[in-house]
Write a structure and sequence with these properties.
This protein has 340 residues and is α/β, with parallel strands linked by helices. It has helices spanning 13-24, 74-86, 130-146, 164-177, 211-223, 257-266, 284-287, 318-337, and strands at residues 3-8, 29-36, 44-47, 50-53, 55-56, 67-70, 90-93, 124-126, 148-157, 229-236, 243-251, 270-272, 293-300, 307-314.
Length: 340
């Protein structure tokens, strides 16, 4: 006996990826519904070897459905997620709406699986921000061994994090560089993204940080340990898929780089590629389509007593969004619902 699963926002990048991953990982689905807004009604999407037409989210009845994977914006989630949860369907939400709600668990299954028991307070589970998800997978096993005091992270985030419009803008601007008569001014981003980098993701806050940077701080504390200090600089780069992060950590106990490498090799969800030679590290090109979070360039930080530097890369549409949501569904099935 399997589950009745609804994918909400099935026509978007993340929604389509959720369907792909459900099929790839052979999630025990008895019945699946693909839902979208009325303007996308009838759009065809793929689930395994099936082609399905989207149904109208506004009129869909979630009664009797086990799990709903939400991949829509916060405004729409605010309307539809409580409606689904009220019927007994467990909502796994990819938006930022519920991440900071103390009654909603924020889950990365490799990091804090036990927190899932808190889902019952609202029948909702939150998926973290894409840049946070991959980072905490790498941080948690090191924190367990040496207790991380402080994290300094700089991100290099792909345009797919801004949705289809971000991908289109990079593609169009890249082509226009070679055709000066075809000017493509920025619309999705604040400046030209082709052959450029932009140190600005989401809105600016009063302290000069951006909301994306604030998310990494708040979510790391909620997922791992509220005492960890985090400072982030988030940058958009001209890469289609795959977020990269340069991470510096300071720990309470000394942690040798070789031991850190061994710990990460044994940690769930991580693939260490760390050879000190040309090409002996991971880049976004290699991570696209992969389930793993890649870690490279592990080395001691000699400027402090207990410091390490490393490089972290992951497919943001997978671990940063769709994969993590499906892993939450798998965890929910194993620990709570126990049907599949």
């Amino acid at each position: 006996m399997g589950y009745k699963v609804a994918v909400v926002g099935a026509t978007g990048n993340v929604g389509r990826e959720m369907l792909n991953i459900l099929a790839e990982r052979e999630f025990p689905v008895d019945e699946i519904a693909v839902l979208a807004s009325r303007k996308s009604l009838g759009t065809e999407v793929s689930f395994g070897d099936k082609t399905m037409k989207t149904l109208d989210l506004d009129t869909f009845d979630f009664t009797g459905w086990d799990i709903a994977l939400f991949a829509i914006g916060s405004d729409a989630t605010k309307k539809y997620a409580p409606r689904a949860a009220a019927t007994g369907c467990v909502v796994i939400d990819n938006s930022s709406l519920y991440r900071y709600d103390p009654q909603v668990p924020l889950i990365v299954p490799e990091v804090n699986p036990d927190a899932i028991v808190g889902y019952a307070q609202k029948n909702i589970i939150a998926n973290p921000n894409c840049s946070t998800a991959q980072m905490v997978v790498a941080l948690k096993p090191l924190h367990d061994r040496a207790t991380i005091k402080r994290v300094v992270v700089s991100t290099y985030q792909s345009v797919s994090g801004a949705g289809t419009s971000g991908i289109d803008e990079l593609w169009d601007q890249t082509k226009s560089i070679y055709n000066p008569t075809d000017n493509k001014p920025p619309k999705t981003f604040t400046k030209q993204i082709a052959f450029n980098v932009i140190p600005h993701i989401d809105v600016f806050l009063d302290d000069g940080s951006t909301k994306e940077e604030w998310k990494m701080v708040a979510e790391t504390k909620k997922i791992i340990d509220k005492s960890i200090k985090v400072t982030a600089t988030c940058v958009r780069v001209p890469v289609f898929v795959g977020h990269s992060e340069a991470i510096n950590i300071e720990t309470e106990d000394f942690l040798d780089e070789d031991e850190a490498r061994d710990i990460l090799r044994e940690a769930p969800g991580i693939l260490v590629i760390d050879k000190r030679e040309d090409g002996g590290y991971a880049t976004p090109v290699e991570c696209v389509g992969d389930f793993a979070t890649f870690v490279s360039r592990i080395r001691q930080d000699s400027t402090i007593d207990n410091g390490l530097n490393f490089w972290c890369v992951s497919d943001n549409l997978r671990k940063g969004a769709a994969l993590n949501a499906v892993q939450i569904a798998e965890l929910l099935g194993r620990r709570i619902l126990k049907k599949g």
